[in-house]
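Dear H.,

Thanks for agreeing to be a second pair of eyes. The structure we're designing against is below in C-alpha cell form, covering all 368 positions.
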C-alpha cells in the first residue's frame, strides 16, 4: 500500500527533476527515469541544515523534512566534533557527475565514499546491483548505507575500507566515481580501471573526468560545473586541516594583491585549490562589508595571513607566494574556467595543467 509520504515523495522527485532539466543539469532521459524512480528520503532520515542561527537538526518528524530532502541541496548527515564529515551530495551535482561517468548496460562501477548510500542506489537502479561496488571509510556509515540499500531493494557490494586503495578484489572496473574530495588521484585506481575506462573524481574545487590509457596513465579535463566536496579522510577524523592558531611568522613582507580578488572570485578560488591543496581558507570583512584579511593554513602546518597590504607566513610552504603566483597565471591566461584545466596521473605522480599537458600549473612547494 502506498503511503502519503511515498506519494508526496514521488511528486517531489518529479518536480526536482523538472527543475534540474530546466536548468540544464539533467540532460540524459535515462538518468531522469532513474532519478524519478529512486527515492532520496530513505537515505537521509535525519540531517543538519544551515540556518541564520547555525546548524539545525532535521528529522523525519519535522513537517518540512520531506520538502528539504527533495531540494537541490547538499545535506550534512554526520558531524564529528561539530564538523560535517558526511553528506548527501546536492542532486544536481550528483547527476552532473553520473552523466559524465557515461555508463552503459553491462558496465561495472566502483564508487568511492558510500556516504548515505543514495548514489549507490542510483547506480544500482541504472546498472543492476551486481554491477556496483561501493567503499566507505567509516564502518558505521557503511553498515547504515547497506541496511538502507537493502530495504530499498538494492544489494550492491558495500565494503568498509579506505577508498584510496580502491577495491582490488572485484577489479577491473569500467568506471570509477568518487564523492569525496582529493588533492591527488590514488595510483591504485589506475590499476583497477580498465583501459579506456573513466574516473570521475573531485579534485580541489572541481571535478575531473579522466580516461585511463593502455599504458596505465590517466588524463582528462575538469568539468565546468562548480564542485565542493568534503575531503577524503581516515575513519574517526574530519579530514579538515586544523587551524594552527597564530604561529610566529618566519617571513613578513608587503603584498600588492587585492584581498577581494582572492576571497570573492570563485573561479580563482578553484585555481587556488589546485596550487595550494590540503589548505584551509577564511577571510574577514569590516563593518563596511569589504574584505579586510585573508588567512590560509595547511595540514602540514603552513600558514599565511594577509591584511593591511602586508602578509605574514610560517611553516614549510610559503602559501601567500602560491596565492600570488596563481593569481598571476590566472590573469595572464584570461581568467580561465575549470574546463581549461586538466590532470595527468601516472604511477609516479600527478600533474595539473592549463589548456595542454605541456603547460603545467605549479603547486606550492615546501621550502628547503
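And this is the sequence the design step returned. I haven't edited it by hand at all.
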Amino acid at each position: 500500500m502506498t503511503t502519503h509520504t511515498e506519494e508526496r515523495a514521488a511528486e517531489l522527485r518529479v518536480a526536482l527533476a523538472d527543475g534540474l532539466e530546466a536548468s540544464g543539469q539533467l540532460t540524459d532521459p535515462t538518468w531522469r527515469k532513474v532519478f524519478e524512480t529512486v527515492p532520496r528520503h530513505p537515505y537521509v532520515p535525519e540531517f543538519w541544515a544551515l540556518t541564520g542561527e547555525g546548524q539545525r537538526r532535521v528529522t523525519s518528524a519535522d513537517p518540512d523534512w520531506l520538502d528539504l530532502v527533495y531540494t537541490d541541496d547538499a545535506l550534512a548527515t554526520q558531524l564529528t566534533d561539530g564538523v560535517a564529515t558526511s553528506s548527501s551530495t546536492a542532486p544536481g551535482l550528483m547527476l552532473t557527475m553520473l552523466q559524465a561517468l557515461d555508463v552503459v548496460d553491462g558496465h561495472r562501477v566502483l564508487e568511492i565514499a558510500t556516504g548515505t548510500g543514495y548514489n549507490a542506489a542510483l547506480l544500482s537502479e541504472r546498472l543492476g546491483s551486481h554491477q556496483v561496488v561501493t567503499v566507505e571509510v567509516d564502518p558505521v556509515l557503511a553498515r547504515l548505507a547497506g541496511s538502507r540499500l537493502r530495504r530499498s531493494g538494492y544489494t550492491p557490494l558495500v565494503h568498509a575500507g579506505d577508498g584510496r586503495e580502491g577495491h582490488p578484489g572485484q577489479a577491473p572496473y569500467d568506471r570509477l566515481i568518487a564523492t569525496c574530495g582529493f588533492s591527488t588521484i590514488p595510483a591504485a585506481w589506475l590499476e583497477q580501471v580498465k583501459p579506456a575506462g573513466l574516473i570521475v573524481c573531485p579534485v580541489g574545487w572541481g571535478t575531473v573526468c579522466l580516461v585511463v590509457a593502455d599504458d596505465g596513465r590517466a588524463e582528462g579535463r575538469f568539468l565546468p560545473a562548480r564542485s565542493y566536496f568534503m575531503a577524503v579522510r581516515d575513519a574517526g577524523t574530519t579530514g579538515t586541516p586544523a587551524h594552527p592558531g597564530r604561529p610566529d611568522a618566519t617571513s613578513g613582507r608587503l603584498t600588492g594583491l587585492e584581498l577581494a580578488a582572492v576571497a570573492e572570485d570563485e573561479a580563482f578560488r578553484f585555481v587556488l585549490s589546485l596550487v595550494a591543496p590540503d589548505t584551509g581558507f577564511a577571510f574577514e570583512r569590516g563593518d563596511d562589508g569589504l574584505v579586510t584579511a585573508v588567512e590560509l593554513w595547511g595540514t602540514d602546518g603552513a600558514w599565511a595571513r594577509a591584511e593591511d597590504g602586508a602578509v605574514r607566513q610560517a611553516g614549510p610552504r610559503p602559501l601567500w607566494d602560491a596565492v600570488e603566483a596563481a593569481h598571476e597565471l590566472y590573469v595572464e591566461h584570461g581568467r580561465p574556467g575549470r574546463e581549461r584545466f586538466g590532470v595527468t596521473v601516472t604511477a609516479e605522480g600527478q600533474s595539473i595543467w592549463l589548456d595542454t599537458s605541456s603547460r603545467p600549473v605549479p603547486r606550492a612547494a615546501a621550502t628547503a
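Two observations from my side: The mean pLDDT is 90. The CA atoms of residues 35 and 76 lie 20 Å apart.

Warmly,
E.
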